[in-house]
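Ex. 9. Protein: Beta-D-xylosidase 1.
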Amino acid sequence: MASFSSPNYYCYNNNNNKKLLASVFVSVIVVTITVSSGVAEAGRVPFACDPKNGLTRTLRFCSTHVPIHVRVQDLIGRLTLPEKIRLVVNNAIAVPRLGIQGYEWWSEALHGVSNVGPGTKFGGAYPGATSFPQVITTAASFNQSLWFEIGRVVSDEARAMYNGGAAGLTFWSPNVNIFRDPRWGRGQETPGEDPTLAAKYAASYVQGLQGNGAGNRLKVAACCKHYTAYDLDNWNGIDRFHFNAKVSKQDLADTYDVPFKSCVLEGKVASVMCSYNQVNGKPTCADPELLRNTIRGQWGLNGYIVSDCDSVGVYYDSQHYTRTPEEAAADAIKAGLDLDCGPFLAIHTDAAIRQGLISENDLNLALANLLTVQMRLGMFDGEPSAQPYGNLGPRDVCTPAHQELALEAARQGIVLLENKGNALPLSPTRVRNVAVIGPNSDVTVTMIGNYAGVACGYTSPLQGISRYVKTVHQAGCRDVACGGNQLFGSAEVIARRTDATILVMGLDQSIEAETIDRVGLLLPGHQQELVSRVAQASRGPVVLVIMSGGPVDVSFAKNNPKISAIIWAGYPGQAGGTAIADVIFGRTNPGGRLPMTWYPESYLSKVPMTIMDMRPNPSTGYPGRTYRFYKGPVVYPFGHGLSYTRFSQSLVLAPKQVSVSLSTNLKAQRNSTWASPSLRSKSIKVSHANCDALHMGFHVDVKNEGSMDGTHTLLVFSKPPIKGNNNEEKKLLSFHKVVVAAGSKQRVNVGVHVCKHLSVVDEFGVRRIPMGDHELHIGDLKHSISVQIQDQINN
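Predicted structure tokens for Beta-D-xylosidase 1:
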């Protein structure tokens, strides 16, 4: 989501919040009510199809015994054209004659119910909601069950707020774009740089949000955004409203589209949002190949497609993609857009129909997708108290269990980057007092990142540390910009007088955010100087904690022998201070892994943000992106993370070869399956292989060699037999979280499917299986699998 761009429709206040001009577009009235145990009290405007409403109870679209598609068609048949047009925008109008209230489609739940978007209102019985760590932080847990559980809790609170009239049921989350460039201000919202990790996160969180309702019912409707190849906000004079992302078929298929495909196929998401940018010269919200053919056609979306806010207006007003606004409206609807966040379709669709650019039936198809989702949510089933989840209310928001989950998520997402000489964990009995220093040392709101709501409460790092030992505090810098060194002397003084020093440094939303891409990877302002001076002055161990969404080049600290340990906390949510302290003092054994590469500052000089290519280009010196293609120096690699204990792995069961048989009708045409100039060894198309019997099982024993219980993340990568700049160095196949007590071991079953895991994408966007020796990296182990055509093995 983002700022509206059309000055004719919107204005901005001083905080850059979006405000709808009442004189141009009438907003939906949110009715505030009092609730008891989640049940709406008398006096509220009736919900659609309320049995008490004699006006509608006999209408067919209100009958829950009739199939949803029949109900939808009945309702559409009762609507006038002007009513239909005003129902395909985010603040849909009321239709009083049919008992239908106005509805605001735009709510957000990226890592908790958010106050971004007009669909959610905090206050009264709902003063706040559980604020989990920012997505990049929970992604570092590499824990699918955690992501699902966070989604389940967030949707409990969302449903409770809906029952109380404080929220809608359509939440435009998660953001599953690939964190391609380390400068991207919104990288914090994403699960990181790897397509497999992002895909698993997307499916898990969506499933948690939407629930497992019988009969295709939805608890809430999630939305995966921003489709596609969207990861530039405002860099070097180029903004997302004008950016044309030039993307190869290869990169689209094996990188940018992967999380969205998983959202639809695995997560069964109810919505996908198209983005502001163009892809190869076409606005995504006006591209039928992307929307109608791919999302709805190939992947089979059962839901609606929504624009990022005022995207249709953007490609008309800013990108000048069409001659007239009516053509812009028609292009969006014909491409497969169902809902416009913004007023553009409400204003121009009628004229587009009168001019013959689209038909009323085209509009009906879009409206049917919207109404179907609303009916799956139960929004046309009357009073919610009689429906599933209707008992949820204020008592189900900010519960102790929910807040404990937020704390556990923060603990699991924290990454131990350095621990020289096993300096951590600190002992509260040996370390009697600690200097706590840094611009992020006593922050609260900073910890929840962006697209957050109103937290239930906060524990700052200083507060968390103070629960273990006596603390002396000095910020050192007034804010993360750290524009001067006036407070450095005071910080050095307390570092000299205490048994240990904890520096909490990093970024906040003034440095990285929506509309703000970073200009560099170093700590802002004079933060590095503060860290170095305090470290030099400190008489005890020095712990550097980095709070950020994106990677930070902390090479200076990594190479400074006076800095004992480095921790990345991401944006750890409302309980972040407790989680940080628990890791530092050993209550929690860290198990997080980096979901993105930490590059040196020098990397940026070779990589303009506008180049979307994942693969390197030796002729231009372009080094490629992410661990999959970039071979140069890094500060910390993708997947890096230390523990207070030691783990070892051993292979117990490991197949060494597998034969691939062709589909029966293709065996006679085998030679036609080989050709692909970029695949240097022989390969076959996945679509030509008989994939059903190509699953292999590996058994891996993980042993805890140390004296402390711990959680180990087993990362499984593959390296294909083909070489060259177009091919991945390695790629993540799967990951497995396992808890291992000190001195014991646990067996992990790792499944590898040849078609899914060992295939690669060629330059035409076609997935192929290379023949030859594939190298698996299972934790610290390497194992080779020979993949051959069946008759080659038989011969």
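Check your answer against this statement. Residues 2-44, 671-680 have pLDDT under 50 and may be disordered.
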